[in-house]
Amino acid sequence: MREMIQLIRGFKDILPGEAELWQHIEKTAVALFEAYGFSEIRLPLLEKSELFARSIGEDTDIVEKEMYTFPDRKGDLVTLRPEATASIVRSYIQHKLYAQDPVQKFYTIGPMFRRERPQKGRYRQFYQINAEVLGVDSALIDAQLIFMLVTLFSRLAVKDVEVHLNSLGCPSCRPEFKAALSGFLSGLKEKLCADCVRRSGRNPLRVLDCKVPSCRDAMAGAPSLLDFLCTDCSTHFQTVQDALGGLHVPFTINSRLVRGLDYYTRTTFEIQTRSQGAQNAIAGGGRYDGLIRLLGGPDTPAIGFAIGFDRLVETAGLNRSDFIKKPDVFVAALGEKSTRSAFDWSCALGLAGITVEMDPGGKSLKSLMKRADRLGAAYVAIIGENELDKGEVLLRNMATKEQNALPLAGIAERIAAIVRAGTMRP
Ligand code: AMP
Fold first, then answer.
1. CATH code of 331's domain
2. 357 and 278 part of one domain
3. Residues 369 and 247 in one domain
4. Residue 178, exposed/middle/buried by CB under 10 A (0-12, 13-18, 19+)?
5. CA within 13 Å, CB half, 297
6. Lowest mean pLDDT: which of 40-44, 257-261, 264-268, 310-314?
7. Are residues 334 and 402 in the same domain?
8. Is the separation of the CB atoms in 330 and 371 below 8 Å?
9. Residue 126 has what pLDDT?
10. Which of 279, 299, 320 finishes a domain?
11. Looking at ligand 1, which residue's alpha carbon is closest to its atom 17?
């Protein structure tokens, strides 16, 4: 045998048996988002590299170390998207969606690419479920997005969900905080990792979310952004908290939560679950009131979140086997002529919306019945040369073991009616 080609490290296959759970989660999320007026937007996986450098920020881990960036055949630098917000904003501006309605609500689901160190819960191709609201400044929408997240996680039986909340201020109050933070950092240079030392001058906020343990320890006494919020930001943040209280969503204020992307302003949040070990953030998001202008659009406030789909699958308290589809009918045909007859009406059954499985491989009744059992078929339709001569099909209810001979003429309609009614005598 020739050497087998394996998938790339940090990438994975989602096989049948697991994919059904992904589908269920996706359907649950879509139903919830659509109830709140979100529409789907589908975006390319490949964008100009500049889009991410400008939006996520040059000093971030994602842009500095993690992007899959390469020159295409003409030498233009392109990047496999590491996140979706930048593309959503690009699309909103490019198609002037704000001219149709200044308020746009989108959701999108798909793969993202970051060349991080792979481990459980962290992949190089991973999936996100995004929801974004563009054109709304009100803090109530911030609370509504968090409420949607918590509702989704509860519908998917995710346990021990915690909402962590912070405000990152705005361009009028953040500079003062940055100055205070820079002052604090200037006394810490020997204790910080090389990345933090380099970033502390240009972008001191990034030091707050460094994952290196010694940097975390060194930052324990860092000034809190919440002490620097201007009146507008402070009122906005208070409204988010009051609205969450009104919706009975518990949360914890975490003034260290800055998230790994530069574009966030005001409300930022992360949803964590204690059941997931080190990779415990299952969703994160926040406001990005300056991003649309930064990317060449009108001055428009916006907010959104991204759910880590892979981590959601790992933490959802759902049973995989409950979602595996079982055939309504397994057709067991014996002999060549019966197989040809069964082939025709099993195709008709599929057209009628009945899940049908037929094994045309000329196997014995015993092995066909075994397979029907393994697949969990509700009914087995048996036709051998004998039944064919008599113009009959035997239909067996696998749960009750009841078995009836049915006329071959009009068999597809008859079986479809039995399956739909759930009884042998519809
Ligand atoms: P971010 O886009 O960094 O704000 O991440 C939002 C969510 O995506 C996180 O809370 C994680 O659940 C998920 N996520 C981010 N990076 C990865 C990764 N490399 N593998 C799996 N999930 C990830």
1. 3.40.50.800
2. no
3. no
4. middle
5. 27
6. 257-261
7. yes
8. yes
9. 98
10. 320
11. 122
Q: Which amino acid is located at 279 in the chain?
A: Q
User: Given this model, what pLDDT does residue 261 score?
Assistant: 77
Same domain as 284, residue 139? yes
Quote the ligand 1 centre to 308 CA distance (angstroms): 5
* Ligand 1 midpoint to CA 424 (Å): 50
Q: Report the pLDDT value the prediction gives residue 196, as an integer from 0 to 100.
A: 87
Q: Check residue 422 and give its pLDDT.
A: 87
Distance CA 256, CA 235 (A): 20
Give per-residue pLDDT as tens, 144-192. 999 999 999 999 999 999 999 999 999 999 999 989 988 898 888 888 8
Q: What is the percent of the chain with per-residue pLDDT over 90, rounded to a whole number?
A: 79
Atom of ligand 1 nearest to the CA of 312: 12
Ligand 1 center–CA 43 separation, angstroms: 18
80 contacts 44 by C-beta, under 8 angstroms: no
Ligand 1 site residues (CB inside 6 A) read 83, 114, 116, 122-123, 126, 128, 259-260, 281-284, 306, 308, 310-311
Domain that holds residue 355: 326-421
| Same domain for 337 and 306 | no
3-state class (DSSP) for residue 282: strand
Among 120, 126, 163, 264, which is best to mutate for testing ligand 1, by the most ligand atoms less than 8 A from CB?
126
Ligand 1 centroid, distance to 5 Cα (angstroms): 28
Residue nearest to atom 4 of ligand 1 (CA): 284
- The total of structural domains in the chain comes to 2
Residue 13 lies in a domain: no
Q: What amino acid occupies position 375?
A: L
210-236 tens-digit pLDDT: 888 888 888 888 899 999 999 999 999
